[in-house]
Design a protein that fits this description.
This is Substrate-binding domain-containing protein. Keywords: Signal. InterPro entries: Peripla_BP_I, SBP_2_dom. This protein has 2 domains: 179 residues, Rossmann fold (3-Layer(aba) Sandwich), CATH 3.40.50; 109 residues, 3-Layer(aba) Sandwich (Rossmann fold), CATH 3.40.50.2300. The radius of gyration is 20 Å and the shape is globular. Helix 10 links the parallel strand 8 and strand 9. 45% of the residues lie in helices and 18% in strands. The strands form 3 sheets. The chain has a 6-stranded parallel sheet, with helices on both faces. It is α/β, with parallel strands linked by helices.
Length: 356
């Protein structure tokens, strides 16, 4: 995809603030639904006439535990709500397994699920999703995206669910740029060409561009691959020994960059994570990462289950178009007790990481 085409594609996504300006009635729905997600479960008074079929297609084969925890929290909340269900799960690597994901989608739809949880990053995902929206069945839950597509305004998915990439990135950028004194070179380690790179990498680049003395030394698309990030970091350090910051677009990318920084004894270079899962929190405690945007992870699975519950009691009109979970900034200066508190909240259903 050319940069021009990518810029046009980015315009298709309606940032959350603008979405609420255009749909003010959604604000109250979102607030009510957020309260529901944070509240204890209210089990169904009567069992549904039939078991609900839920198909999940996630790029969960990566170091980030976001997708696995999403699944665990979904199942835990469904059980707590006394919703009978069958679950079929399809996992793949991010971005590089597009053909596999297409085959998984075909298999999932042949099962005739009531709900399909999928993600949106590559252009091919969009084409797959549009076919489902045109059919109107199953109910589609789009994971890891909180910016609705303008093109789907009239036929939206059942729910957009996740954590606002731009919001989390702005918090990371503010902290990193201040620590760097608003000057110096940075390396951009994108994910793959697509949604996550635009919302995370694009947001950081826009924030950095506000400061004339901040310069992007290099940029690489990594495909979310740690080894690619490792090699890109080594190359950039050799070409730009005065590098001050690295913005990593995902967990695996951050861990690959961290390996390079450790090998070259360059932990003075600021490095972020994104998501605040177990691997990132461990790297923060070890002094490798400097900052991350920590998702209150299990809220996303709870939100999916609560949306299904509302549909089962004929209150689908109370499901907001978007659920964006809370994000906390965690840095190398965050006290251990505060991180432990956030872990208890974020992983309340999927399990607290065990201490070594």
């Amino acid at each position: 995809m050319t940069f021009l085409a990518e810029a046009r594609a980015a315009d298709d996504y309606v940032r959350l603030e603008r979405f609420l300006d255009r749909h003010p009635g959604q604000q109250a729905l979102m607030a009510d639904f957020a309260d529901r997600v944070q509240s204890p479960p209210m089990p169904l008074a009567a069992s549904p006439r039939r078991v609900q079929r839920i198909a999940v297609i996630y790029p969960g084969l990566q170091a980030s535990d976001y997708w696995r925890r999403s699944l665990a929290s979904l199942e835990a909340r469904l059980d707590a709500l006394h919703i009978p269900y069958e679950l079929r799960t399809f996992m793949s690597r991010p971005s590089v397994d597009i053909d596999l994901q297409a085959r998984q989608l075909t298999s999932a739809l042949q099962w005739r699920p009531d709900y399909l949880a999928f993600t949106l990053d590559a252009v091919s995902h969009r084409r797959m999703i549009e076919r489902i929206l045109a059919l109107g069945d199953p109910r589609l839950i789009l994971q890891n995206i909180t910016t609705p597509l303008a093109a789907w305004e009239d036929e939206p998915p059942f729910l957009y669910v996740g954590f606002d990439h731009a919001q989390g990135t702005r918090r990371i950028a503010e902290w990193m740029l201040e620590r760097a004194g608003h000057h110096g070179k940075y390396l951009m380690l994108y994910f793959s060409p697509g949604y996550v790179s635009r919302m995370r990498g694009g947001t950081f680049a826009a924030e950095a561009a506000r400061y004339p003395e901040v310069e992007q030394a290099a940029a690489y698309y990594t495909g979310g691959d740690a080894e690619t990030a490792y090699r890109a970091t080594l190359e950039t350090l050799e070409a730009h020994p005065d590098l001050k910051m690295i913005f990593a677009n995902s967990t695996d990318v951050a861990l690959g960059a961290l390996r390079a920084l450790r090998e070259t004894d360059r932990l003075d270079v600021l490095l972020n994570g994104w998501g605040g899962g177990a691997a990132e929190l461990e790297a923060l405690k070890d002094g490798g990462l400097d900052v991350t945007a920590m998702r209150i992870n299990d809220d996303n699975g709870v939100a999916m289950a609560e949306a299904i519950r509302l549909a089962l009691i004929d209150q689908a009109d109370r499901v907001p178009r978007v659920f964006a979970g809370d994000i906390a900034l965690v840095t190398r200066d965050t006290p251990a007790a505060e991180i432990a508190r956030l872990e208890r909240r974020a992983f309340r259903l999927s399990g607290i990481p065990e201490e070594d």
